[in-house]
């Protein structure tokens, strides 16, 4: 009898489906249409685990339907995490995007509609992005009172540039994807999105796997090349903790001056 232990560990939970479009090309479909493809902690945990077993594939990430890539973190689950978790409530997102950056796979985001909140960071962790006309980006961190974690903020900055990052995080603007054209490898009519995405994945698969892996590793490192002072990172983390305590209705802990 075959050992099924490895396969059962990575079975997708509710809210995501994995499809093999052709050998070496997978599609992860964010599939919770009633919640506008919002992403639960269980889905982020699955992404973290699944990334460890990838072996050179191209992974397309897309939302189900024609309107929403994803509405971001499942806010119902986020409220539960705020009350129950001793760590940051976005820890599952942080682990998932970190795992994607370390994975032996090329991630291609297929933006079939609006991309909100945590989904913006998920898209930023992908190696390439292709979008349909009329898609958009939005980060409601300011409205929710969230201070974004440093690695995620840096990733968004690297993917979309400083001006787009500021429009998203400081202004809270809904940014048309056309304004972020430089961050995309393609911008196509909605009817052409799936075909153009698959064609890009096929081109990647036609390259030398050794070349793709080696160049991808360095390109990812270049996106992380800026290092921030330790004291700035520490104060940023304190601000994050206080923001989440406020959201959860907990009196923020006093910050000691040294």
Automatic annotation (TrEMBL):
Coiled coil: none annotated. Belongs to the enoyl-CoA hydratase/isomerase family. Keywords: Isomerase. It holds the Pfam family ECH_1. The keyword Amino-acid biosynthesis does not apply. GO terms for molecular function: isomerase activity. GO terms for biological process: fatty acid beta-oxidation. The keyword Isomerase applies. This is Enoyl-CoA hydratase/isomerase. SUPFAM superfamilies: ClpP/crotonase. InterPro entries: ClpP/crotonase-like_dom_sf (IPR029045), Enoyl-CoA_hyd/isom_CS (IPR018376), Enoyl-CoA_hydra/iso (IPR001753). It comes from Plesiocystis pacifica SIR-1.
């Amino acid at each position: 009898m075959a050992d099924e232990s490895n396969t059962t560990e990575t079975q997708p939970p509710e809210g995501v489906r994995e499809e093999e479009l052709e050998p070496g090309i997978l599609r992860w479909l964010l599939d919770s249409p009633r919640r506008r493809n919002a992403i639960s902690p269980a889905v982020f945990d699955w992404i973290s685990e699944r990334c460890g077993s990838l072996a050179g594939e191209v992974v397309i990430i897309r939302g189900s339907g024609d309107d929403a890539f994803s509405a971001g973190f499942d806010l119902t689950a986020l409220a539960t995490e705020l009350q129950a978790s001793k760590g940051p409530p976005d820890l599952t997102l942080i682990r998932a995007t970190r795992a994607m950056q370390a994975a032996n796979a090329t991630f291609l985001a297929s933006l079939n509609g609006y991309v909100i909140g945590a989904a913006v960071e998920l898209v930023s962790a992908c190696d390439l992005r292709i979008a349909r006309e009329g898609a958009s980006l939005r980060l409601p961190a300011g409205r929710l009172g969230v201070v974004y974690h440093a690695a995620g903020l840096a990733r968004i900055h690297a993917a979309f540039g400083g001006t787009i990052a500021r429009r998203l995080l400081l202004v809270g603007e809904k940014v048309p994807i056309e304004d972020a054209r430089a961050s995309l490898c393609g911008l196509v009519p909605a009817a052409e999105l799936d075909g153009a995405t698959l064609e890009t994945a096929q081109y990647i698969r036609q390259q030398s796997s050794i070349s793709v892996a080696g160049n991808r590793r360095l390109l990812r490192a270049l996106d992380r090349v800026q290092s921030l002072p330790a004291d700035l990172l520490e104060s940023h983390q304190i601000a994050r903790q206080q923001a989440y305590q406020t959201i959860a209705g907990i009196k923020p802990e006093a910050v000691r001056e040294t």
